[in-house]
Amino acid sequence: MKNFKSATKKIAAFFLTICLTQAAFTDTVFAAPHTESTVSAEMCTAEYWNARSGELASALLMTPEHIDLFNASALATEECNMNDLTKLDKSYDATELKASLAASTINEMPQKPIYVNSISADTATYYAGIAESISASTWDGTLKPFYALAVKQTQIKSIPTPDYIGYSEGDTDDEVVLSSLRVNEPFLVKQCAFVGGHVYYWGYSDNVSGWVDAMDIAFCKNKTEWLDMWLNDTAGTDFIVVTTDYFHLSKSHYSPATSDLLLTMGTTLKLVPEKDLPKNIWGRGTWNNYAVYVPTRDADGNCVKQIALIAQNKDVNVGFLPMTSANVVSLSFEYLGDTYGWGGMLDSVDCSALVRNVYRCFGLEMPRNTNWQKCVPGTCVDISEMDDVQKAAAIAACYPGTPLYMSGHTMIYLGTVDGVNYVISALGSVSDSSGEVNILTQNTVAVTPLTVRRRNGTTWLANINSYVMPILF
């Protein structure tokens, strides 16, 4: 019996050895998120960078009064291309605007082949059809703008179309997308068009003008109702702001308009006053929830103000957050790993939208594009003439959370480790900082050192030309 047990153990040991040997030659599972080669796991947390900042992390960078000055300065600066919607509501010639929009559709069409929903199309023919649809609008004569609010996350396009327009069969960017609207974001409407079975409205957001699907906005009765829904006192506490990349409202059988509604970072919604709180909201009580007003759309396109509940576990803040370095960094990490979305495609962000949305949580309104964001007077520091050593030192002296800029890209500075500057950004294609230049499409929000490289082999650091310190003291 003893010999039998001994033989059994030897056989078991033999097969175990074989199994372990085979396992050594099989593919191992990488049980952690992938990163750029110099980025450690701890670098992928806001806590790591905020701890390195020490007392600077909690220092107040701008007061509400300073933020109001910044916003007023951006609105008053032509190069920022911001729109003061409260002052754009004078009467206008709708016939003249219609003709202008149709003409600009032709004049500004791409001078290259396009792919419509990934199918090759004749550019001139397609754009001529869009221009013809605009010209057919029945909005004529002297009109006043309509006050609208977004009832869902939606896109603003350069032409009215339900189609996806690319410059190649697999183009990952819809080339006619300009920007996006959050829920409850204002839009001032001045024209309409009927294209592909959809009604589109042309008008202004605070940072671009363009076309929005009619089903995604609703019209308020008057300016007072419109302003009351979205205009906030920077120092106020009668509203909430969404402080994470996104979340959905709870599903509801009784309120289809708010059921599963997507809310994205920077969205603001007014709180329902205690005196106006019903005992029951769509079959639910209010315990451990925020009760807010949400704009919804009736069958005629009119705005209906509904009460909705936001669970206490969601990332929201009553009023805008204090603008500190720690808060800027923490908010930027809410996007870590999210999909890159040009102009708000895929309900996500591109590089400049990430910066805009983060700073929006403090009440600060950044312009839409990278070049425009640098135009707010007194905020941009030009470092384009510095060499790499000087640039790295200048960036290291910035507070974490500072937006950095190079041609076509912006990123948020996190800190410097062993002389290397690190950032977080919504990026497209880039090469790792080590090894041969090997451009890979990432299309994600990632932490990277400024030693990563572009297609021409130069580092991001070498291409940085400026940074913005939006601090007006």
Explain what the structure shows.
The chain is an alpha+beta fold. The chain has 3 domains: about 40-80 and about 320-470, endopeptidase fold (from Nostoc punctiforme) (Alpha-Beta Complex), CATH 3.90.1720; about 85-220, SH3 type barrels; about 230-320, SH3 type barrels. It is about 25% helix and about 30% strand. The protein has helices at about 1-25, 45-55, 65-75, 95-105, 125-135, 225-230, 325-335, 350-360, 370-375, 390-395, 460-465, and strands at about 60, 90-95, 115, 120, 140-145, 145-150, 155, 165, 175-180, 185-195, 200-205, 210-215, 215-220, 240, 245-250, 260-265, 270, 290-295, 305-310, 315-320, 325, 380, 405, 410-415, 420-430, 440-450, 465-470. Strands 22-27-23-24-25-26 form a 6-stranded antiparallel beta sheet. A 5-stranded antiparallel beta sheet has the order 12-11-10-6-13. Helix 2 (about 45-55) runs antiparallel to helix 7 (about 325-335) and helix 4 (about 95-105) runs antiparallel to helix 5. It is globular.
Quick structural overview:
With 473 residues, the chain is of the alpha+beta class. It has helices at 2-24, 46-53, 64-76, 94-107, 123-135, 223-230, 325-333, 351-360, 370-373, 388-396, 460-463; strands at 60-62, 92-93, 114-116, 119-121, 142-143, 146-150, 154-157, 165-166, 177-181, 186-195, 198-204, 209-213, 217-219, 239-242, 246-248, 262-264, 268-270, 289-297, 303-311, 316-318, 323-324, 380-382, 403-406, 409-417, 420-430, 440-449, 464-468. It contains 11 helices and 27 strands.
